[in-house]
Fold this protein.
Amino acid sequence: MSGATDPAARFTVTAHGRVNLIGEHTDYNDGFVLPMAIGPAIRMRVSRRTDRLAVVHSDIGPPASLDLQRPLHPGERSWWCYPAGVLAQFQRLGWEIPGFEAVLSADLPAGGGLSSSAALEVATATAVETLCGRALPADEKALLCQRAEHEFAGVPCGIMDQFAVTCCRAGHALLLDCRSRALQHVPFASAEVRVLVIDSGVRHRLADGEYARRRAECAAAARRLGVASLRDVAASDWPALHAGLPEPERSRAAHVISENDRCLAFAAAVARADWQAAGSLMNASHASLSGDYQVSCRELDLIAEITTGLPGVFGCRMTGGGFGGCAIALVATASAAGVQAAVADRYRSATGIDPRTFLTAAAAGLEVVAD
Ligand code: GLA
């Protein structure tokens, strides 16, 4: 910390990562998603400065020093483009952001598909709100963070991750209608099941270009079907419509339309504690993402294959954007530790990669504590 900090104003923002239980690649199609926040998080310890600099320290690289008296613009693509992007959005809203010093620490791996970038954005936005003593409505805050990611990180993401970090509650998954932005907190705290997160340890380079390509293919399919977005196509109408679409639009639309249905069915299965049904929907989601949407990879398919065959596992699927990153399994609590060890062992033998795995319950997305 530099000498210019004000010890009277210190606080820590904790912004958690997320996994998406189901509803993948549906957010930018105005569809449904069901993420939950997880234990691993980014912590931002903030103190006020007496000048107008934002100084952000991270062990990823040298500190970023940003002059808040000048408009911030997108620049070099580095870890600090996320906080800078968020600060820029608040500048545009006309907020007078006081100077501050922030020290980041994390047990949420960067670039591992668990929304570390959304966590960093939402942590920054929450720090600004706390420093300014005012708050944005939750949906505006999530959308502000999404704009920061589009403009400063150049990633054309949907709205799921920023909403998950901003809005998730402990013991609940978040059912989000990405068109109306209506939220439903779905109780997900049964002692019978746990979520096992399995990090494949790989991140394939084609991820970013392919994500934008999927978005474009879905938009093209919607145009050809004469609807505003694929959300507008009911699964029951699909058999009569799909013949009119060329590949790959047909397969992409098939995934999105069926995934929206699976997401709602999964939320209903969770509500009646029907873990078999929930697990089958996860398996079907993975098959659709791998086959029709083509965003899985050899390693994620292998995890799904290994895991689904184990006793005590209800279902398994890749989670997040794909092309590496993490898979999640819904596991009976009594078998969880054994499943965790067996998956790690088999994946290591098959790939030579020692996977990071952890069991998690549904956490709160965000906490602020005065120091
Ligand atoms: C990434 C994006 C999200 C969403 C998922 C796929 O995590 O940031 O907006 O599109 O991929 O469901």
Notes: Residues 249-271 form the longest helix (23 residues). DSSP finds ten helices and 13 strands in the chain. The radius of gyration is 21 Å. The pocket of alpha-D-galactopyranose is lined by residues 20, 24-25, 27-28, 157-158, 160-161, 320-321 (CB under 6 Å).
